[in-house]
Amino acid sequence: MPHVIRFDHVGITVEDLDLVTDFFVALGLEVEGRTFVEGEFLDTVCGIPDSRTEIVMLTTPDGGTRLELARFVRPDAVPGRPAAMANELGLRNVAFEVDDLQAAVDQVASEGYGLVGGIGEYEGIWRMAYVRGPEGIVVSLAERIG
């Protein structure tokens, strides 16, 4: 018997919430809300006593996908590996379809973020690139071309 009803969101823990939020807004996501969470609920769910987070929920323009960015106020953040490559175990990227791949790549480049590799084409159907954004977050951008 299946238990999943729908895909709700992807969550990413970050250190600089404003910087990372601005990066995703520049790509076209919209801020749905921003709040602090603390107390018994958070302590129970994340397993960290006396924790406090600030959360920004972002959504795609069509409202179909949401991205939760969270910054721990307490306890301090623990660094990850921002330069992790695609073959390192764990969540490696968040993917979005874009209407103009080159324009999206140029937009993030103007903010100081670059490609992990290059722009590839898959069977004349998709053009795709990995962009490494703030705090090492890898975003996969794909444009349907066929």
Automatic annotation (TrEMBL):
Family matches, as Pfam families: Glyoxalase_4
GO biological process terms held by the UniProt record: L-methylmalonyl-CoA metabolic process
Keyword Metal-binding included in the entry's annotation: yes
Domain of life: Bacteria
Keyword Lyase: no
Signal peptide residue numbers: none
Keywords on record: Metal-binding
Gene Ontology MF, one: methylmalonyl-CoA epimerase activity
PANTHER family for the chain: BLR5325 PROTEIN, METHYLMALONYL-COA EPIMERASE
Protein name (Swiss-Prot/TrEMBL): Glyoxalase
